[in-house]
Amino acid sequence: MDNLKIILKTGFALLLFMLVGNHLQAQGVSSDTLAALADGQKYDRAIHIMAMLLLGFGFLMVFVRKYGRSALTATFLLVSIAIPVYIFLAGTGAFGNKGSEIDTLILSEFAAASLLITAGAVLGRLKMPQYLLLGLLFVPAYMFNEWITLDNGLGLINAGSFIDTGGSIIIHSFGALFGLGVALSMTTKKESATEIESDFTGDRFSLLGSMVLWIFWPSFCAALVLPSEVVHTAINVVLALSGATLITYFFTTLLRGKIEAADIANASLAGGVAIGSVCNSASYSEAIIIGVVAGALSVTGFALVQSRLQKGLKIIDTCGVSNLHGIPGLFGGLAALVVIKGIDAGAQLSGIGITIVISVIAGWIVGKIISVTGRRRIPYIDSEEFTVDD
Amino acid sequence: MDNLKIILKTGFALLLFMLVGNHLQAQGVSSDTLAALADGQKYDRAIHIMAMLLLGFGFLMVFVRKYGRSALTATFLLVSIAIPVYIFLAGTGAFGNKGSEIDTLILSEFAAASLLITAGAVLGRLKMPQYLLLGLLFVPAYMFNEWITLDNGLGLINAGSFIDTGGSIIIHSFGALFGLGVALSMTTKKESATEIESDFTGDRFSLLGSMVLWIFWPSFCAALVLPSEVVHTAINVVLALSGATLITYFFTTLLRGKIEAADIANASLAGGVAIGSVCNSASYSEAIIIGVVAGALSVTGFALVQSRLQKGLKIIDTCGVSNLHGIPGLFGGLAALVVIKGIDAGAQLSGIGITIVISVIAGWIVGKIISVTGRRRIPYIDSEEFTVDD
Amino acid sequence: MDNLKIILKTGFALLLFMLVGNHLQAQGVSSDTLAALADGQKYDRAIHIMAMLLLGFGFLMVFVRKYGRSALTATFLLVSIAIPVYIFLAGTGAFGNKGSEIDTLILSEFAAASLLITAGAVLGRLKMPQYLLLGLLFVPAYMFNEWITLDNGLGLINAGSFIDTGGSIIIHSFGALFGLGVALSMTTKKESATEIESDFTGDRFSLLGSMVLWIFWPSFCAALVLPSEVVHTAINVVLALSGATLITYFFTTLLRGKIEAADIANASLAGGVAIGSVCNSASYSEAIIIGVVAGALSVTGFALVQSRLQKGLKIIDTCGVSNLHGIPGLFGGLAALVVIKGIDAGAQLSGIGITIVISVIAGWIVGKIISVTGRRRIPYIDSEEFTVDD
């Protein structure tokens, strides 16, 4: 009798369980589908990031005179090399486990973003095949740093103790410092004195690129956070970008007398760079403050250190990535020490320090390797590699 | 024995409940996650709206001659001031409860859209700091009207009885009328006779801005509707936009002899403006009809009232926001009286009337305040505030 | 007593069922909402496709000299005619059942994409009202082919046995071949010898259009796949596009000596065209190989068959849609024979063959019909239909 009851109850339980399951499936939504829906939202953010990579970074770099086709084509090539190489290397497991398919795609886009930042530092000084070589060599170095700082690679930093959700350090600072490393090893003093002219008719295109980056930046920072953190992260990013945009306007007017459109296009984004590390944990007011400080740092760098007003760029960082990604990224990584209660300060500083060391050294070595394939004193222009009739 | 059974059954129920819950959680999807996923879809629409604000409104305004940098920078600044101010004021509760974090973000974007419409009416007549002042003063007025018409502010209109899902009235008409209020109080007859030249080489950029608005308009209207209404709302918006686009082509040819690209860029969007109020309740055929009528009204306004063909704009509404947002918005709000069965006509008319009164008066006052900080007879051009070398 | 137990157990089951239901609903998420969320993700992809239609196809076609306004306006009109006509015809049920509202919207966007491809073949040879007539006549022919190849129309091919998930055949090849049919029937030898000049200053706009297509192509191919297949499909598309982009760079340099920006803008996308048929079933490496082959085929077509370098286009396919959509599409459809295990080869070849026959014949007839409304030997330019002052 008791056995019968147990059997009945078990049968009943299974029936009920199937009933609930069927109810959900009747709507075309099984629990497998639920997991797929969660991945589907990551997918949407992955597409947003793709817009940043191509339209955003691509058009932001169109300001260089007679180099528009080259900048856009280089962007296409760098994205097309970085993503497959990252996915292939992730598949080998050489740099730890990168998670599900969608996580791997997003991480590969992060690598492409960091590579595009590096390219911005040497824009106009490489030929197309050299950009490709740069991409091939950059990705393993990037993954090595990612593995050490986030995934306990070599056992140096405990997984989860270095905080850099939106990549202030491992994406932005890494890319900028790697780029400076490349530039340093490839460029003699004479070369660095050669001006790269900027093309002010490209301003509208640069502002277009900047706007695309601004718009989709929340998806960049929220790409891999928990579903419950997406909205708060997004609002923090919007507030940081707003703060940086407003302060950029005030500082560009203050420091230059007039507004420089390139400052607006670039320094406004420093808020997005700097909020990265703490994007999912900061409060609204902390987010705004981080954005304002980052914007101020960035525009000051552009206005005082790098003057496009004086008939061209006289330094080796073509797009000023040190001002947009380098300094604001480091500031963002350090801000985590203040914002996040109970943070492991040692791990945070280690992560930052290791990233600086790896990026500069790897960049310097890669610059030397690329130099073997040819160097140029005068910056390239479209007509050397492209068919042009204008 | 009976007690034992009850205990057993209760235990069994709990077990089963946990089993089902675990089954869902095993997939990484708890019911909390489900709520987060619902918010995540609103998030996607919030990003789409951000694209409309910056790329859409920004580039649609690039047609003004030698004012491209200014138009894009003003767009950046207005968005950066409106969203944080709205979120801050929402946090104070002064204008009622704005709902969850994501709802507040979307509502703040609506405010920014309305502000950009206002700015379109006075584009070229303000300096950058004046745009910022405009934003600061606009947002509280906008929230006051939103509170009264939607959230039973001052007890005037019962919550839910004024129908304006996609903001035909409270976003589009409010912005246009506020802008006219500002223009009226800031502009003398002499000033309004001063032409603002349009730059036809900017047409491709204007069409780009227009396309961005067209593409993402469904997300604007569906931003806050129920998940089950999103798709129908989106299709209604697409049909309304299609109807407006087709009629704009016929009317621009009919009224002007040739096609005016600016008509295509602007009046095609009137369908999106007008479908707003009833976007989630109209049938497909109603949506097309509303779009066609709105497009016809808008293009007639542009072609007959505001003639860019005659070597410049001779009226005070720089971007013709009265033709694109003002009239089509009012038409959309009134269309609800026909489309929605059992609508509270008194509430609907009250909402429209109150919005008209508040927007014009508040705009007029804000115009007077801005005038204190300086006025100009001749429209500004880029070179007065920006570094230019073209 | 037993009856009592049954009643108790039934009541308990209902209670438990409601309990679980309530638990989900307490979070604001019923199972109906879950279905709505699944549709909501399709909605996001529908918006991405809309970006491809307007910004993507529109700006990719801006390269034609003095025809930028016309190309963008034609894009607006073609989308605005195709989507409502498709939705209306789907509602009649004349071409089978097109599924839910969101599925119908996405299918109507596919039709619009195919129509834009057709228009690319005759760009500059039609007046605006002729583009509209083309759209009206194209959509029923497109739906007829869709019905026969996918929905067992006329009982020719079993539903589900012709594999073309992302539309390599029924969208891309159909559109390209339909366009060639129109061009063949409308154009005499003399006319086809008339050059259409390309405008290299439009290159940056063309690259913008190309990037928009590249970015959102994953959503095009994954639009209607199962939720669990979205991510894998997307990655396959990205890999195919990357492969095509890289090979395009090598081949354009090889075949032309210098890089042709138009090759980069166009042939890079051939990977997306060709991966369509097997986008949800290919492995990563298969996806890359398909992309590389498709890119190579496409760039070879552009470089050897269609030479924009020689001061203009001397053939009738204005935008080279045969090189971008025709050949790569057919290759993609045939690739399914190799990639998909156990494919019904007869059905696959039938689907391809039927599509070729219907598209060419229908295009030829439509061309004759349009010819009745007027023909031109010299390509149109903006100033004939548009107000211009540049």
If you had to describe this structure to a student in words, what would you say it looks like?
Three copies of one chain form a homotrimer. Chain A is globular. Mean pLDDT of chain A is 88; it is low at 17-29 and 308-314. Chain A has helices spanning 2-26, 31-60, 68-92, 101-121, 128-150, 168-186, 189-193, 203-222, 230-256, 261-267, 270-275, 284-305, 321-339, 345-372, 382-385. The relative contact order of chain A is 0.14. The longest helix of chain A is centred in the first third of the chain and has 30 residues, at 31-60. Chain A is 72% helix and 0% strand. The first copy, chain A, has 15 helices and no strands. Chain A is mainly alpha-helical and 390 residues long. At the A-B interface, helix 1, helix 2, helix 8 and helix 9 of A face helix 1, helix 2, helix 3 and helix 4 of B.
